[in-house]
Amino acid sequence: MATDTQRGTDGTAPTEPVQIESADHLDELVADQDVVLVDFYADWCGPCQMMEPGIETLAEESDATVAKVDVDALQQLASAYGVRGVPTTVLFAGGEQVDQHVGMLSEEQLFNLVSQYTDE
């Protein structure tokens, strides 16, 4: 039986980062999941690339859902969240935005951020 690693529609967090396709997609994910960490990134961004292993580990090992937004492909969505630099992480808990951070975060910082809102 295949697991749903992309959508997490059964209420459990996906074990891989979810690539966001639209504002509606992000809204659905935030509404369906308890804790969502959104990574606003760009392919050309060095710090974003350095942060990627930590993002993937967070998705695999935490109870949080990890979403990725390509700011070049979804400029209006990035603008709606006030993203002016990448990487920017936005944390949602219970459907509400609870934190936003501009700049690179270490894997430990990522886990510390989401652990405030998960049962880990």
UniProtKB/TrEMBL annotation:
<dbReference type="Pfam" id="PF00085">
    <property type="entry name" value="Thioredoxin"/>
</dbReference>
<keyword id="KW-0249">Electron transport</keyword>
<protein>
    <submittedName>
        <fullName>Thioredoxin</fullName>
    </submittedName>
</protein>
<feature type="domain" description="Thioredoxin">
    <location>
        <begin position="1"/>
        <end position="119"/>
    </location>
</feature>
<dbReference type="InterPro" id="IPR013766">
    <property type="entry name" value="Thioredoxin_domain"/>
</dbReference>
<feature type="site" description="Deprotonates C-terminal active site Cys">
    <location>
        <position position="39"/>
    </location>
</feature>
<keyword id="KW-1015">Disulfide bond</keyword>
<dbReference type="InterPro" id="IPR036249">
    <property type="entry name" value="Thioredoxin-like_sf"/>
</dbReference>
<feature type="active site" description="Nucleophile">
    <location>
        <position position="48"/>
    </location>
</feature>
<feature type="site" description="Contributes to redox potential value">
    <location>
        <position position="47"/>
    </location>
</feature>
<keyword id="KW-0813">Transport</keyword>
<keyword id="KW-0676">Redox-active center</keyword>
<feature type="active site" description="Nucleophile">
    <location>
        <position position="45"/>
    </location>
</feature>
<dbReference type="InterPro" id="IPR017937">
    <property type="entry name" value="Thioredoxin_CS"/>
</dbReference>
<dbReference type="GO" id="GO:0015035">
    <property type="term" value="F:protein-disulfide reductase activity"/>
</dbReference>
<feature type="site" description="Contributes to redox potential value">
    <location>
        <position position="46"/>
    </location>
</feature>
<dbReference type="InterPro" id="IPR005746">
    <property type="entry name" value="Thioredoxin"/>
</dbReference>
<feature type="disulfide bond" description="Redox-active">
    <location>
        <begin position="45"/>
        <end position="48"/>
    </location>
</feature>
<dbReference type="GO" id="GO:0005737">
    <property type="term" value="C:cytoplasm"/>
</dbReference>
